[in-house]
Amino acid sequence: MALKVKTAETKVVLVNLLICMVVFYTVYYVVLSVCFAAFKIKMLDGLAPFDFKTNPSWINPYYLVLVISLEITFFVCGLLFALVVEEWVWDYAVTVTIIHIAITSVVMSEFPLMLHWWLALGSGVISMICGGQILAYCLFKDNFIYPVLDDF
After folding, report:
1. Do 133 and 89 form a contact (C-beta atoms < 8 A)?
2. How many angstroms separate the CA atoms of 76 and 54, rounded?
3. Which of the four, 39, 59, 110, 151, has the lowest number of CB atoms within 10 Å?
4. Torsion-angle region of 40 (φ positive above 0: left; ψ -120 to 50: alpha; else: beta)
5. pTM for the predicted model, two decimal places
6. How confident is the model at residue 146 (pLDDT cuts 50, 70, 90)?
7. Are 123 and 130 in contact (CB under 8 A)?
8. Distance of CA 88 to the CA centre of its chain
9. Cα–Cα distance, 16 to 45 (Å, whole number)
10. What totals of helices (H) and strands (E) does the chain contain, helices first?
């Protein structure tokens, strides 16, 4: 009654995770730079990807930059993760998000308890998983791993 799924070696998984982390933060800082320029904010804060303490306000351009860049980053990374890890986008998306939460906690010296940050993060993860999985299915449908459900 076990699923017949071929698991990747630990080394391959760790290399893919490292690639996904580098892609995630590269995309994040590129999108942040574009958003900072578009909203004409003078100084790019290097800690912006980890900032959950900014008060939520739709009239605050800095907050808008943080939210928009977070959402765009997560969606674009979902598509890019599909090219790196093929059908396992959801797994790497969740893992990268958990690592991002841990790094955010360390950088900001406290665990994020702001509801607006969690809502933005949650919607970003959902868009990352859905967009990436759909792209992976379209690109790799002939090579997609389907669980054997005959035993259920």
Report:
1. yes
2. 24
3. 59
4. left
5. 0.84
6. low
7. no
8. 13
9. 28
10. 4, 0
Contact residues for 148 (Cβ-Cβ < 8 A; gap 6+): 3, 4
Residue 88, both tokens: 């396992």
Distance CA(94)–CA(90), nearest Å, equals 6
Determine the residue type at 36: F
| pLDDT tens digit sequence for 94-106 | 999 999 999 999 9
User: Are 120 and 109 in contact, with CB atoms under 8 Å apart?
Assistant: no
Q: What CA–CA distances, in Å, run from 25 to 31, 74, 77, 119, 143?
A: 10, 10, 9, 20, 29
Query: Amino acid letter at 135?
Result: L
Phi and psi based region of residue 109 (left: phi greater than 0; alpha: psi -120 to 50; beta: remaining): left
Amino acid at 2: A
